[in-house]
Each structure stands twice: as structure tokens, then as C-alpha cells.
């Protein structure tokens, strides 16, 4: 692990009140890193900051503002000298919404990134971890997909912002005096074991696991399985689901790699998945197994834009970051279910 002194290495986590950000703040604080969070709460709640405090014993410093505000972002960096790294989660992430509101996505996801990079350059903050996505690969020609696989034409404005963000970072590192690691997440699911933090989807969930847990809780009538005629062993689509706590730990490993001087280039990219693919049917079965509930399911046509199958080659992340996902699909489903039950109890 790290040779740096964690307590002297303050980390800015943008979007730190959100789903993946909040779990990452927990892991960072548990490793002794001081954390400052920026979030405008456009897709999260202020209470998450207190929950992080309950889990770790330390409430992170919190600043609420919109990172697309250039002067506010610049003022933040000027007021916070000596940051060791930035982990940049803040972005909009709803693929479907981005189809109808592309400019909302380009403005938020790209303008906030540029403002953060300018702030880092001006304040001489040397290390950036960026939230990218397996969506940049589209449907890969070869599986498991490696980091060297081609980035395919984006299907959604959201996916396009991830591709563009990676390019913006790649072309800015040298000029801005920073090193960066982009982590390409596969499908993050599950929640913290405390059931104090987890995913908070607004409205009807677009993603599989929150839809499953809300259906089991009686909030949705029935899960629609999108497509049973895929060329996969059971006909349903396959993804690489990763527990959000494992994903959070990959961020700590990425920060340590850069801080310890182990990075081999100014800009590196790593897949963050488990390396295993699971079909929609397997996910439903795992959920039913751990929850002891039978899910009402109907089988419908494919969802437009969905790829058939994807799972990660994680060997590069294993070698470079010394990181590996540890939690099983059953653990992912059980933690997601406990989180849903905790939400119902609120
Ligand atoms: P999330 O919506 O829960 O968290 C994002 C946080 O950023 C929210 O708290 C939101 O309020 C904040 N935010 C958004 N725009 C902001 C702005 N302009 N200024 C300040 N705060 C802002 O999403 P998440 O699932 O935690 O995703 C985190 C990152 O990971 C995003 O960049 C997302 O695109 C990426 N990602 C997510 C997934 C996934 O399936 N969840 C997969 C791949 C990549
Ligand atoms: C998983 C599988 C659905 C809902 C999305 C983004 C991707 C990344 C992760 C950010 C698919 C099926 C789903 C339902 C279903 N995010 N499904 N019934 O589409 O793999 O990836 O989140 O970067 O960019 O596109 O995730 O959870 O929506 O779907 O049958 O009600 O579950 O068809 O096969 P997806 P998902």
C-alpha cells in the first residue's frame, strides 16, 4: 500500500455525497486520508455527509456548490492550498435522460471537468482520479474487454461525455502538471454493509438492481426483463456487476499509485470490474436466493441501445493497482436489499 503519510494528504472528492463518491469517502477516511467534499446535491442528499460521519467517526469537510461555476470553483482551489489529489465523480449519469437533454450533459460533465482541471493547475494539485465507464467500449469485439480495446462511437451523449472527458484529461496532463488515472467502471451495484449509505435513484430506476430491490419492496409492480433472445447461454444480457465497496477501494489504490510515484505515464486507464459476467436471469436468481423473496417478473423486448454482453479483463488493474474485487454477486444483492429495507424504514 501507500508509502505516503495519509494524514498529510488531503483529498478533494467531487460528487462525494453521491452513490460511488460517498462509499469512496468512507474508504479514504478509514485509511486515514482527510477528505473535503464538493457536491451541489443535484442528485444526492446533505444527510449523506452525516451518515459518512456515523460510519467512520469523521464528518468530511463539505462545500455545496455547482462545479460548472468557474469563479466559485477557482475560489475553492485558491482557499484550499496543499491538496494532494482530486477524485472527480461529479457528473450527470442518466443515459436515457442524456438522449433528450444532450446539452445539459455536455455542459455539466465537461464544464465541471474543465473547471476542476484549471483549479488543479492553478493550485498545483498533482493527482487526479476520474470516473469513466465501460460504456466507452460499446459492444466490444473481444471479451473480456481490455483497456487497449477500441473506444467505439458513443451511443448516448452521456457516454460521449465520458469519452470526451478522457481525451480532455489526456491532453491536459502535461500542460497542467498533473498525473491522472481514469477508472472505467463496469456496473456498480450494492451498498455499504452498514446500510447507512447506498444508491438513491430519483423516480423510476433505469438500472437493474434498484429496480429489483424496489420491486421486492412493493414499490414497483413487476420487473421487466429486457430481452430474452440475446445470443447468451440463457438469452438475457450479460454485464460485469461490481460491489460499490470494491469499486471505492480501487480509488484509494489509484490515489496511492500516483502519490507513491508508481504511475508509469501521465495518464493511465484501468478497468474496474470483477472479470465475471452475469446474466439478468442470474442477477434475479441471486437476489431471490439472498432475500428469500420471489420477484414478479415479465419478459419483454430488448431495450434500445443495450449491448449484448460485456465483462472486464481486470489483469491490468490487478498488477498496477494491487487491487482486486472481492465481493460476490450474492453479497452485492444482499447489501442492495438491506439498503432498500433501510430506506423503507425511514
Ligand atoms: P451520483 O449521481 O450518485 O453522484 C454524482 C454526484 O455528483 C451527485 O451527488 C451530484 O449531486 C453531484 N454533482 C453532479 N453534478 C455536479 C456539479 N456540477 N457540481 C457539483 N456536484 C455535482 O452518481 P454515481 O453513480 O455516484 O456516479 C459517480 C460518477 O461515476 C459519475 O461521473 C458517473 O458518470 C460515473 N459512473 C457511474 C456509473 C454507475 O452506474 N453508477 C457507472 C460508470 C461511471
Ligand atoms: C443492466 C442489464 C438491461 C433494467 C448502465 C449505463 C452504463 C453504466 C452502467 C454509467 C441490461 C437489464 C435493466 C430493467 C432489465 N453507467 N435491465 N430490466 O445498461 O448495463 O449500464 O449503467 O456509466 O453507461 O448504460 O445497466 O443496470 O441499466 O442494465 O432487464 O428494468 O439489466 O437490459 O441488460 P447498463 P442497467
Summarize the structure in words:
- This protein is an alpha/beta fold and 346 residues long.
- It is 40% helix and 15% strand.
- The chain has a domain at 8-193 and 241-274 and 313-325: NAD(P)-binding Rossmann-like Domain (Rossmann fold), CATH 3.40.50.720.
- It has a seven-stranded parallel sheet, sandwiched between helices. It has a two-stranded parallel ribbon with strand order 7-10. A two-stranded parallel sheet has the order 8-13.
- Helix 2 links the parallel strand 2 and strand 3.
- The mean pLDDT is 97.
- The structure holds nicotinamide-adenine-dinucleotide (NAD) and UDP-4-deoxy-4-formamido-beta-L-arabinopyranose.
- Residues 93, 95, 133, 135, 187, 206-208, 211, 223-226, 237, 239, 280, 303, 306 line the site of UDP-4-deoxy-4-formamido-beta-L-arabinopyranose.
Produce the secondary structure layout:
Elements (H helix, E strand, L loop, with lengths): L10 E4 L4 H12 L4 E4 L8 H10 L4 E3 L6 H10 L5 E4 L6 H6 L1 H22 L3 E7 L23 H20 L2 E7 L1 E3 L18 H9 L6 E4 L11 E2 L1 E3 H16 L7 E6 L5 E2 H12 L5 E4 L14 H7 L7 H16 L2
Parallel strand pairs: 1-2, 1-4, 2-3, 4-5, 5-6, 6-11, 7-10, 8-13
Antiparallel strand pairs: 9-12
Helix pairs in contact: 1-2, 1-8, 3-5, 5-6, 7-9, 7-11, 9-11
The chain binds nicotinamide-adenine-dinucleotide and UDP-4-deoxy-4-formamido-beta-L-arabinopyranose.
Amino acid at each position: 500500500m501507500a508509502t505516503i503519510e495519509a494524514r498529510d494528504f488531503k483529498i478533494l472528492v467531487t460528487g462525494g455525497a453521491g452513490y460511488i463518491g460517498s462509499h469512496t469517502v468512507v474508504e479514504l477516511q478509514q485509511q486515514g486520508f482527510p477528505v473535503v467534499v464538493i457536491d451541489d446535491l443535484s442528485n444526492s442528499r446533505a444527510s449523506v455527509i452525516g451518515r459518512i460521519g456515523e460510519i467512520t467517526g469523521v464528518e468530511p469537510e463539505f462545500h455545496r456548490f455547482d462545479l460548472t461555476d468557474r469563479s466559485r470553483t477557482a475560489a475553492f482551489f485558491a482557499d484550499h492550498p496543499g491538496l494532494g489529489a482530486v477524485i472527480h465523480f461529479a457528473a450527470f449519469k442518466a443515459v436515457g435522460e442524456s438522449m433528450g437533454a444532450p446539452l445539459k450533459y455536455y455542459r455539466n460533465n465537461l464544464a465541471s471537468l474543465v473547471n476542476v482541471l484549471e483549479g488543479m493547475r492553478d493550485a498545483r494539485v498533482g493527482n487526479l482520479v476520474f470516473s469513466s465507464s465501460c460504456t466507452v467500449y460499446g459492444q466490444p469485439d473481444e471479451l473480456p474487454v481490455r483497456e487497449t480495446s477500441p473506444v467505439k462511437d458513443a451511443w448516448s451523449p452521456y457516454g460521449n461525455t465520458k469519452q470526451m472527458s478522457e481525451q480532455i484529461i489526456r491532453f491536459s496532463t502535461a500542460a497542467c502538471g498533473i498525473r491522472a488515472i481514469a477508472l472505467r467502471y463496469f456496473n456498480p451495484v450494492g451498498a455499504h454493509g452498514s446500510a447507512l449509505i447506498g444508491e438513491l435513484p430519483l423516480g423510476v430506476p433505469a438500472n437493474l438492481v434498484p429496480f429489483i430491490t424496489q420491486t421486492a419492496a412493493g414499490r414497483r409492480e413487476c420487473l421487466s426483463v429486457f430481452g430474452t433472445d440475446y445470443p447468451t447461454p440463457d438469452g438475457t444480457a450479460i454485464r460485469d456487476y461490481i460491489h460499490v465497496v470494491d469499486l471505492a477501494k480501487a480509488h484509494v489504490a489509484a490515489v496511492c499509485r500516483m502519490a507513491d510515484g508508481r504511475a508509469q505515464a501521465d495518464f493511465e486507464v484501468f478497468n474496474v470490474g470483477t472479470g465475471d459476467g452475469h446474466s439478468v436471469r442470474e442477477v434475479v436468481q441471486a437476489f431471490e436466493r439472498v432475500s428469500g423473496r420471489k420477484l414478479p417478473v415479465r419478459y419483454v423486448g430488448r431495450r434500445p441501445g443495450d449491448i449484448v454482453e460485456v465483462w472486464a479483463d481486470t489483469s491490468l488493474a490487478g498488477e498496477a493497482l494491487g487491487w482486486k474485487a472481492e465481493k460476490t454477486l450474492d453479497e452485492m444483492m444482499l447489501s442492495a436489499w438491506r439498503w432498500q429495507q433501510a430506506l423503507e424504514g425511514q
